[in-house]
């Protein structure tokens, strides 16, 4: 499995601090040569939270995840299903901001200002 894919699929489950992520990748058998590229991969695929020094997966990458990825345990797969269902469900508090506000009669009939 490519190193970048491992990082993406791990970050999909939860946020990680860099040392935690390195430890998890080492347990999974990541080669020593790949460890040096983690910073570059994180810049590409993760958002960094400066408050708690954690990394989370960029939103657009959730669409590329494979729920049957071989590195996942059955529990990981169940958790990912829950996470993905939350991300795909429309937010109940969101409002449609793409519509322009309606104009009153005097604004609608007034000539455009240069």
Summed up:
This is ELL2 factor. With 114 residues, this protein is mainly alpha-helical.
Q: Your description of this structure?
A:
Pfam families: ELL. GO terms for molecular function: cis-regulatory region sequence-specific DNA binding. Residues 86-101 have a biased composition (Polar residues). One of its GO terms (cellular component) is transcription elongation factor complex. Residues 86-114 are annotated as: Disordered. This protein is mainly alpha-helical and 114 residues long. The chain has a single domain, classed as Arc Repressor Mutant, subunit A (Orthogonal Bundle). The chain contains six helices and two strands; from the N terminus they run ααααββαα. A two-stranded antiparallel sheet has the order 1-2. A hairpin with a 4-residue loop joins strand 1 (46-49) and strand 2. The longest helix has 15 residues, at 74-88. The chain is globular and about 40 Å long.
